[in-house]
Design goal:
alpha+beta, two-stranded antiparallel sheet, two-stranded antiparallel ribbon, 5 helices, 6 strands, 36% helix, globular
């Protein structure tokens, strides 16, 4: 993307996606630590409650170990992973989901929207998630539901 776009990935993502959608609280590095939730993972072996990830965290899955570094998000010099490197607020994530739900909001290409929704359609409970998304989206900043008759 950097070669085709003529700029670094963080700048391209900001210019082509985040800014046009109004996602001001999404980035590849976080500077305001208190605003970031601590990451948790599931315990597949015991199916117990979620486990708080340490720094670093070695996740075992199907006989393999994957090392995670939750603190990496605070290092502005770390590699900006296009696959899982962005951090953002719940509000920004809902803006992104709404853009997907409504066909791309003129920012995301329809083919990309279809590819994303095709994947969501295969996930058990995807319709439930979209219903939840609509309910969350219709709440004001205090958490009270907004009356949006359509």
């Amino acid at each position: 993307m950097e070669k085709a776009g003529g700029n670094e990935l963080p700048s391209l993502v900001k210019e082509l996606l985040l800014r046009p959608l109004g996602m001001a609280d999404t980035m590849f590095a976080v500077t305001d630590r208190p605003r970031l939730a601590w990451p948790y993972t599931e315990d597949k072996a015991t199916k117990g409650p979620p486990i708080r990830m340490t720094e670093p965290y070695d996740m075992k899955d199907e006989g393999k170990v994957v090392r995670f570094s939750p603190a990496r998000i605070f290092d502005s010099g770390s590699f900006p992973s296009g696959g899982a490197g962005l951090a953002g607020t719940a509000r920004d994530y809902l803006i992104f989901l709404e853009a997907i739900r409504t066909g791309g909001a003129g920012v995301i290409k329809p083919d990309s929207v279809r590819a994303t929704t095709d994947q969501l359609g295969a996930i058990k409970g995807a319709r439930w998630w979209l219903r939840l998304h609509r309910r969350l989206w219709r709440r004001d900043r205090s958490g009270r539901p907004q009356d949006r008759a359509r």
